[in-house]
Design brief:
The strands form 26 sheets. This protein has a 4-stranded antiparallel sheet with strand order 48-49-51-50, with no helix packed on it. The termini are far apart. By secondary structure, it is mainly beta. 2% of the residues lie in helices and 24% in strands.
Length: 727
């Protein structure tokens, strides 16, 4: 039985507690241990029980922090201790929250594998981010008590020190514990555990900044934040002076907290929701002193209703079931999250009800479906979330990803089909037409291929073989922006290549290649020519370019070359040479029509023993002229006595030629024609110093050429006089 009304005083017996009595905390006898009547004792689970087995509900209870509290939330001041022995080996004074021998611990606890008990922590990783009731970080796991604390030894950050307590929950990191922890000449204020300076009432000069007051105790003065209430009146959020530590704090009385309906925690000097049950109302009648908040329960003993007998450590509310055994047939599973007995927790719990039955974990009931993925037939691909039954589709998303049914929803009959329009058949060129029954079938014309990307042509010998391909005519290729020729026949020969039928290619014959730099159709690609034949059968745009010029990196179709100009340059029976640089036929230059030092456009225009060579003089080109190839070891014809080795002709012939030493062909021509002049620059090539303006015997000024002290630099019959050929 349970007793909750025993106003008794009694003495603990058996040496279990190691004390005679517990000091009264009020005038109410219910909080004492020496009234008349049967005496309760602590059992091996640290529960107060009477000799008849009843639980004393009015007795104090031990919280996870190891302290004992009365039901109204007030702490028991007298020392109490209890060691659990209800499990093998006992775990002593640890944070014990039940067994984990047969299951996981309830959040936020973890399982201590050594004792198989649920504890606050087994190592410091479980303490990350946790705080004390005062808001201080508790990142360290006390290895003895298995609870998260501020520190246990030298494990404080930032040079702080661990001030330990018999109850490690009260451990805290402080600036100093003794004077050696402070830099000289500072000392440790053992009340606040802060480093500060000594001072006297007569000389508080060292007390500056936030510690501007001198507190003198037993003749020893230290600099502190405050010694009286007015010292803190301008400190934001800390307007009260705690005289035990001489620090400005949030509160020392309830007055600063009153406007928010809170009270002052006198130990922590902060405003909190409660310090005892007196501040808590119906619904949350208990004050949890760990964080000074009003809760529905602080432990299982606070939950008296059979249907709500467990106190959730996170929510601190009385909940229902905690195990399946507490539930009945029809709803045999305990949903521990809210303590509700439900029909199922997982899919497996509904398996006995037949195929296609699923567990709605939100409601805990077995239903036909929970979401669309569980509805897999074409006729019923959507889950009606109001009835949890599979029904017809309303959106294509309800059809996708389900084997054996179409991807698209036909809203007229709410059925999943392969298509509702041709665009939905575009993925399969062999079946691009959407039939009335919602299946994709072969195309019947080009229009049925409009949605098939890159394949606008309907091609096939019969209705069942038709499919969408790249092209059936050149216009398809042009519309696609692809190579312009549609390959529709296989044929034979180099031009045909390996490209598939009904694909767009560059060419099937030379006539498809319009670029003179790629005139030859090879394997359905236009390539550079290698012979004149590769330039034949060209389109109208290059009908006159029948010669393949291979002198460059790759062949190019041209009208003619210096070496290949017959019959391209023969008109009306008249042969003409090719301008080798322009690669076009001339209209007034016959083969072998030029002689030595005449201007030329090809080797063929010069005499058979001559070449057309670019004459360089005065640092640059003066033009192409005919020069005699050297007949032997030396040059013999005046004025061409200069031997020019490795001269490259306009048509690529490399030879030794006989050239002019002191002038150019242009200047020689001006001299031979007695060109009238006024200055040297009027003779030969401008600014090259290849001609001289001199006085002729008839008294006129005419052009002549320079010479180098020898008559061989002058024209036949000329004489070299003081650097130029005399007239």
């Amino acid at each position: 039985m349970r007793r909750s009304h025993l106003p008794i005083w009694f003495a603990l017996i058996g040496g279990l507690l190691g004390l005679q009595c517990i000091k009264s905390l009020s005038d109410d006898c219910s909080k004492t241990l020496e009234c008349a009547g049967p005496k309760p004792q602590l059992n091996n689970k640290c529960e107060w029980v009477f000799p008849d087995g009843g639980v004393w509900q009015g007795g104090p209870k031990q919280r996870p922090n190891g302290k004992w509290y009365w039901p109204d939330g007030e702490e028991v001041k007298a020392p109490l201790s209890c060691q659990r022995t209800d499990v093998d080996g006992g775990i002593g004074n640890v944070s014990d929250h039940g067994s984990c021998a047969t299951g996981a611990c309830e959040m936020p606890y973890v399982c201590d594998s050594a004792s198989q008990r649920c504890v606050d922590c087994v190592d410091s990783t479980q303490c990350a981010g946790k705080q004390s009731a005062a808001g201080d970080a508790t990142p360290i796991c006390d290895p003895e008590r298995r609870s998260c604390v501020a520190c246990t030894k030298d494990d404080c950050a930032g040079g702080f020190h661990c001030k330990t307590d018999s109850d490690s929950d009260n451990n805290r990191c402080v600036q100093c514990i003794g004077d050696p922890d402070c830099p000289s000449p500072q000392i440790c204020n053992t009340a606040s555990h802060e480093c500060t300076y000594q001072c006297t009432s007569a000389d508080p000069g060292r007390c500056t900044g936030t510690k501007s007051k001198c507190a003198v105790t037993a003749g020893v003065g230290v600099c502190v934040e405050c010694t009286a209430q007015p010292d803190c009146q301008n400190v934001a959020g800390k307007t009260q002076c705690a005289l035990d530590t001489n620090q400005c704090v949030e509160c020392t009385t309830d007055e600063p907290c009153g406007s928010s309906g809170r009270v002052c925690d006198p130990a922590a000097h902060r405003c909190v929701a409660c310090v005892g049950a007196a501040q808590c109302a119906t619904g949350t009648p208990f004050c949890d002193l760990h964080d000074n908040t009003c809760v529905a329960c602080a432990g299982d003993a606070d939950c008296l209703m059979p249907s709500a007998s467990h106190c959730s450590p996170l929510a601190r509310t009385c909940t229902g079931c905690t195990a399946n055994g507490q539930c009945e047939a029809g709803a045999p599973y305990c949903r521990t999250g809210d303590g509700t007995c439900i029909e199922c927790l997982s899919e497996a719990d509904c398996s006995a009800k037949g195929e296609g039955i699923h567990c709605n974990t939100t409601t805990g009931s077995c239903v036909g479906c929970i979401n669309d993925t569980q509805c897999t037939s074409a006729e019923a691909a959507r889950c009606d979330t109001s009835t949890h039954q599979c029904v017809g589709c309303t959106d294509p998303a309800q059809c996708g990803g389900k084997p054996g049914i179409g991807l698209f929803c036909r809203t007229t009959d709410q059925r999943c089909v392969d298509c509702t329009a041709n665009a939905e058949c575009s993925r399969n060129p062999a079946a691009s037409l959407c039939s009335p029954n919602g299946t994709c079938t072969p195309c019947t014309g080009d229009g049925d291929c409009a949605a098939v990307e890159g394949k606008p042509a309907c091609v096939g010998s019969n209705a069942n073989s038709k499919q969408c391909l790249e092209c059936s005519k050149n216009e398809h290729c042009v519309s696609l922006g692809k190579p312009p020729v549609c390959k529709t026949t296989a044929g034979a020969g180099a031009a045909v290549g390996t490209a598939s039928l009904n694909t767009c290619v560059q060419c099937v014959t030379n006539s498809d290649c319009t670029d003179v730099a790629a005139s030859h159709c090879v394997a359905n690609e236009c390539k550079p020519c290698a012979a004149d034949a590769d330039c034949s059968n060209g389109p109208a745009g290059r009908s006159t370019f029948g010669v393949c010029d291979t002198s460059g990196p790759s062949g190019v179709c041209v009208q003619c070359t210096g070496k290949d100009f017959d019959p391209a340059c023969t008109t009306g029976g008249q042969r003409h040479v090719c301008d080798s640089r322009q690669r076009t036929c001339t209209t007034n230059r016959a083969p072998a029509s030029a002689t030595a030092c005449d201007p030329c456009v090809s080797d063929a225009e010069c005499q058979a023993t001559q070449l057309c060579v670019d004459q360089a003089f005065g640092g640059g080109s003066t033009g192409f002229f005919c020069f005699e190839k050297i007949p032997g070891a030396t040059c013999q014809t005046q004025p061409f006595f200069s031997v020019l080795n490795a001269s490259l002709s306009i048509d690529g012939t490399l030879a030794t030629i006989c050239g002019l030493r002191s002038t150019t062909c242009s200047a020689l021509s001006d001299s031979r024609s007695n060109k009238a002049c006024t200055t040297n620059n009027d003779c030969g090539t401008a600014s090259r110093d290849d001609g001289i303006c001199t006085l002729a015997p008839n008294g006129s000024m005419v052009c002549t050429i320079p010479c180098a002290a020898t008559d061989f630099d002058c024209d036949i019959g000329g004489q070299c006089t003081t650097g130029f050929c005399a007239k």
